[in-house]
Amino acid sequence: MNNVEDNTASNNRLRFAGRVILKALLLFLLLNFVFAIWYPLPTLAKFSAYNVFFPGRQRLPYGDNPSKAYNLSLYNLDAMFASHELAGRVKPDDEFRVLVIGDSASWGFLLEPDQTLAAYINDSRAMLPDGRRVRAYNLGYPVMSLTKDLLILERAMQYKPDMIVWPLTLESFPYDKQLFPPLLQNNPRAVRELIQTHDLSLDTKDANFEELSWWKRTIVGGRRQLADLLRLQLYGVLWAATGIDQDIPETYTLRQEDLEADRGFHNLQPPHLQASDLALEILSAGVRLAGDTPVLLVNEPMFISQGQNSDIRYNFYYPRWAYDDYRRIMSEESQRKNWQYLDLWNAVPGSEFTNSAVHMTPDGTRLYASQVLRAILDVAKSSPK
Amino acid sequence: MTLTHILVFALVSLVVGWAVPYRWRGWVLLGASLLAVYWLQPSTPIRYLDFWFPTASILLTVITWAATRTPQAQPSRRGMVGAALVVGLILVVALLRYAGPACCLTPSRPPDIWRVLGVFAMAALLVAIPIRFPVSRRFLVPAIIFLILGLFIILKSPAISQWASEWLRVSGGQSALLAAASDLPWLGFSYLAFRLLHVLRDYQGGKLPAYDFGEFVTYAIFYPSYTAGPIDRSQRFIGDLRSATPGKVSEALKPVNDPARQEQFVQGGTRILVGLFKKFVVADGLALIALNSQNAVQVTSTLWMWVLLYAYALRIYFDFAGYTDIALGLARWVGIRLPENFDRPYLKQNLTAFWNSWHMTLAQWFRAYFFNPFTRYLRSRRLNIPTWVIIFIGQLSTMLLIGLWHGITWNYAAWGAWHGVGLFMHNRWSDWTRSRLSGIVERPQLRKVMAFGGWLLTFNYIALGWVFFALPSLELALDVFKSLFGI
Asked: Which residues contact A12 (CB under 8 A, 6 or more apart)?
């Protein structure tokens, strides 16, 4: 009798366990299916703990060493912007909002968040004659590519800027540099839209684009993106607790002083750089995208070497002939297209550069910022409220 | 244990629980545990140590068995098979050195086979002594206890570890310059030590039943609980093992729909899933923001320091409880019910209740083998010490030892002392309030307030204690204390 009861009970349990496993499996598949169809990642990304439970970040998330930087590199632009202080601030009437885009020099490599170009502009507490206070936001991202700048600018325009400051360096201009940043490769749809809208001479079918396949749209396939989203929120706690968003080493290798006797620049050789070698059309697209908002283009300061072969090259990045031609081209193009252009190529002494020819010390950045601020005020005076 | 380890162990447990005939189950568990000891061992910069550490764990277990075995017991066939399995598997692991691409189960190449055989010869001699000369146990058992404690002190004391590492490096022809205390990661030794000490002490107390060689080794190095406990008692474990592996031919393969099997499958699976979630989702998530020596000096405000401390408190619980759940689940799948180690410790309303629900098997071990005998000794009429002093000394010294078990450093000692003092204060408070606050029982609202207050105080006291545990130095811990209280 007991055996019969045991077997009945055990059969029931087995059936129950089977049903539970089957239902769990079906639910899991269904969830993945719904997730893939709906693909809520962009929507989820907009819900951020930043600006709610802890302060927004002063610069876009980027970090190679998350456990020390309390920051990480991710490719979800919505999440990146949602974590920025800009997303948490309703623009006050008395604010003259300046968005600073650009590369690592703008983002502030080896600089604390309050030592960047945008931070030093804010430190000056500059006022316009109409009573508006200049308030700069750091939207730099540590990769050299004008297309990356354009992508960020396109997103940034929703935050009602009064001016765009767009620091540039020649290394961001070559066509072969445009689509290489992982941030672009992982946002192929947005980049394609930019290419098509602005009719840019870039390949919409670039082989490096990471297409959002059906698999990647599922929870399992997109687990990395989901985890990154979660980690970004968690690191917000440490960002709020410490104010740290970058792992700045105590010591680092200084920018190269002695240089190779190499005259080449990317795949180009002297004597002359042509305007067509540079993706100037992306600058035009950016200015067009900004519409009535003035855009201040800044040729950012760079390290000028005095060492070996400095008669051939200015620094690790640039041979003299290419950089001189680039400055000439930018100057001519700005005049021709009526761009607001400020050339600060040699505005900062060599001693104020850190580990690369474009990364500055806090003092160097402060000097740079003072000159950019002067230009901002000049341009602002002539722009309508 | 990584996810890969857990996945492989789960597969092994499933196969053992569902497909291996009962009479083979014990052997498979023994074999799996032996191999797991080698597989789990992390690499070490000292040559061959990642082979010698697991081998030493096994040989120490074997010698302990020999020293505590019933003197009049005759060598059994099962015992001989078990010994052959142990020796054979160690030799297989060592021989993988010559297996080319199949090398190795250990993180690096094992030493040459002659050295292994040499160590076997010495171990065989040590095993033979108590078997051949039972009278030698009187000295051998205390000697093993001292050996285990000595090894423990070497491994847990950074200064001595450093020295030992230098010595081992020089002995092996390596440079001593790179020696570090972290060179000696003997995985599972702490838990193995507790199991062996329990066996040795029970043997001395005449409380140890006769064990078969194979089941004793399986008890000591059982793969689900080898790295993170729980610390089971041999009497209970081997009882379970025997009922899970009856060894009767008639029960060679029970039907798949055997209710006991299904029950253990569902219970084990649930525990493993819950454990995986606790460890790899909750604990690993909290680990990103938990207090540590890096962020402790970077935090800029009191409020955030508390947030980081609470994150640490929760992280350490979910991490440890998660591993325990996984161990219990894996063991359940092979028919063994390991003891519980946690019972919602952070919801307790006083520190005594916390220690009855946090790492319970460790607390029980210390109660059985240190606190009770020690306080019994203090209570003896010869000493004539007041009761409250006995309680204070007993609790403080027990908690100090529990602290030092984690590492022989000032911060762990401070953590132990923190809890020892806390337990004593609670003991005195309970004594004082027992008669005075008896009226509260009739006032439910006040009882609730008292319960909430007790929980709040207890949880924060425990959380503050974690400051000592989380940080490597007392100076840093005191700085964090200052920050927590806005000083």
From this structure: none
